[in-house]
Amino acid sequence: MSDKGRHNRRWHIARQVKELIFYLLLCLALPVVASTEPEDAKRAEDVLELWPLRTVPAGTVLRYGDARVLMPGVNLPEQVAQALTTAAVTTVTRKLIHHFLIWTLGNGDRFLSHEHYLRLLGWYQSGLMDDALWSWHYLVRLTHMVNMGQQLLHGGINRWFNLSGLKRVGQMPVYPGRVLDSHLLMDIRLDLDWQDRATAVLDIIPLKSTPAEEPLPPRLQQIHQLSVVALQNHVDQIRLIFSPDDSVSLGWHKHGGEWRERLVSPAATKPHSSWLLRNLVTSYGLRESEAWSMGSVLDTDMLQRIQSIIAGKLSEDDICETHPALEVAGSSGELVRLNDRHLIYQSENSHELLHILNNDSYSPGLPGVMILGSDIAETSETVRQSRQYRLPEWLAAIGASMLYDAAALLMNETLDAVLEKANRHWHGADNFELVKRLKVPKRQRGGVATRVDRVRDKQGKTWVRKYLNWDHMAEDDKYSGIFASLAREKQILMELDDEHIIRLKDSWVENAGHRDATLVLLEEDAGESLIHKYKRINSAKTLKNVFRGTLQGLDAAHKKGFAHFDIKPENIMEDGQGHIRLGDFGGASRLGADGRAQVGIMTPSYAAPEMHYGKSSHWQADLWSLGITGYNRASKKLLGDLYTNDIKLLQKTRSRFELMDYLPSSVRTGKKTPMADFFTRLLVSDPVSRPSIPELLQHPFLAEKPSPLRR
């Protein structure tokens, strides 16, 4: 597939994802119109009942036609917000990491040894740094994978416990029967604490407050009435927590609010267990009939008490009072194993059924299914005809991961574009117009790597703008080290501030966080380079001006602790007023205490002899390069007796030589002119023998400061 085809496909997918997330956000945001004011109670109640997505602490309920699907552990508003936030953080972090990597390439030689910096550069050239850009994304994905693994492992362990009969743990749906199937959802969660003591949680999620279509038994009637009272009081979930000490706590959650809790049954003074703790945890191992208080919590009196608590009709003293229905001593119920699939609790006027169904499947139902009803024959049919569905909890972890992927795709396109536009606006990248393209990047080894343009701002002033892509390739299909040189030049120019050195106005990274990111440097327009301005220099004043301006620039750089190491005609600029400025510090290196620096980028034909034979060189190598630059740019007529073709041949062989040895005998034996003495002192093979920059600036050849040149 072509790059254009991939781009169109990514754009189409991103657009679909945007529409989907917009719809989800719309569905999740509209319920806020449900006011909690008393006069708007009916409107809020209608919204809670009719909206297709209901998010409660236990999960999210999806209404699709007559079906009600409970997705445990899924909180769509929170997870959508978290996915979008995480994706946004990932996008921003990727950009920050990219800026840090570029800063490291530009400053690594400051705090790393040369060997370690070369290793860092090798990581960049081999593409390993591309993986670092996505490190946060990989960390988030790893977190999701670990979470999914934990959920699947937990589900597998629970399944093994239930099938082996060792423990009864997991999620148990409670079906309220055909009449109330669409009115409420009930679920029991069985678990064990760290002391292997049984705990249980009963969740009731009210869905509809409409009257039941048919008459109901007393218990189901009270359950239905409880859901009606809950919706009228904006309660979207009721939770009963049964602790190992037989205490029972009631909690209820108001829509858009917080949990409220009340203790409805203190700890028992004598050993006993409620119907949930004893029946459901030990039911599969039941060997004989026993009497338990199965109806202690869901008896009609207790359901009325819960209604009163939610409606605020009971005081604190009334709530903490022990209710007679919670006492086991007065219980007259009996739990009987009817067969392998039925456990029946029978009381004086009714009985409840614990129906074990699908307990060997991966879907919810482990450790069984409970049905509240009165007819054994209807139990299987009740589950079969029910329009209530539960999804496994491990799907929530998978859904969260998929939601993050969708949000990441959205953020990668939208937030990235927003941040990029803000970045360009901040730096005024669109406030310049192209005047002339000075250099076009080439891939060939030794070719120009950086694109250079002359641009004009809105005030009419011209600037030079340099560009280079992060993934610029060298001839060997590796990332070119030129990018690191441009990053290093940016940092060096930020430290250097001298009238004889090109100043950096601004710099930024376009499309940061991606392989096609571009580092942009905006520098002052210092005119034309010597190689473009002069085919040959015929004027002694011009040559002196070039030497003086370049030496002053080198002196400023050396005092700041930098050696240029790439002095050549292309890097010496002259403007229309004859001002000389030194540019292109991409090959510069930091000087050590001994005045030496590591050799990076250099141009062999202008490099000092010692630069070809060692990893480090003295700062005096810049003087040699300046001498070769002046010698090559000066015309044959201007050089006079100093001119010899041997110099160019010696440059190509990279040999150590003394200019004096190749000059005519008349020059060697006679009195040297100031120009001859100046060149011979620069082109000395021993770097230590080369004079200092202040000495050169006081040399008779440069003693007379030329007036600014007129062009």
Largest sheet: 10 strands, mixed
Number of helices: 22
Portion of residues within helices? 40-55%
Unreliable spans:
26-45, 268-297, 319-332, 360-365
Oligomeric state, counting identical vs distinct chains? single chain
Class computed from helices, strands and strand pairing: alpha+beta
Return Rg in Å.
41 Å
N/C terminus separation: 56 Å
- The main sheet orders its strands as 9-8-7-6-5-4-13-12-11-10
- The 3D shape can be described as rod-shaped
Mean pLDDT level: 75
Number of strands: 26
The figure for the number of domains is: 4
Strand content: 15-25%
SSE arrangement:
Elements lengths: L2 H27 L11 H10 L2 E4 L2 E6 L2 E6 L3 H36 L2 H13 L1 H6 L1 H30 L5 E6 L8 E9 L5 E9 L11 H15 L2 E8 L5 E7 L4 E7 L9 H8 L17 H12 L4 H5 L13 E6 L2 E5 L4 E5 L13 E3 L7 H7 L2 E3 L3 H34 L5 E7 L11 E6 L5 E8 L12 H14 L8 E7 L7 E7 L3 E2 H4 L6 H20 L2 E2 L8 E3 L5 E3 L6 E2 L5 E3 L17 E3 L2 H13 L2 H4 L6 H8 L11 H5 L4 H9 L10 H5 L2 H4 L8
Helix pairs in contact: 1-12, 3-6, 3-12, 3-13, 6-12, 7-9, 15-16
Enzyme class: transferase
EC number: 2.7.11.1
Organism: Parendozoicomonas haliclonae
Folded structure, characterized:
- The chain is of the alpha+beta class.
- It folds into 4 domains: 3-33 and 75-149 and 397-424, no CATH class; 167-389, no CATH class; 431-524, Phosphorylase Kinase, domain 1, CATH 3.30.200; 528-703, Transferase(Phosphotransferase) domain 1 (Transferase(Phosphotransferase), domain 1), CATH 1.10.510.
- The longest helix is centred in the first third of the chain and has 36 residues, at 76-111.
- The chain is rod-shaped, with a radius of gyration of 41 Å.
- Its EC number is 2.7.11.1.
- Residues 438-702 form the Protein kinase domain.
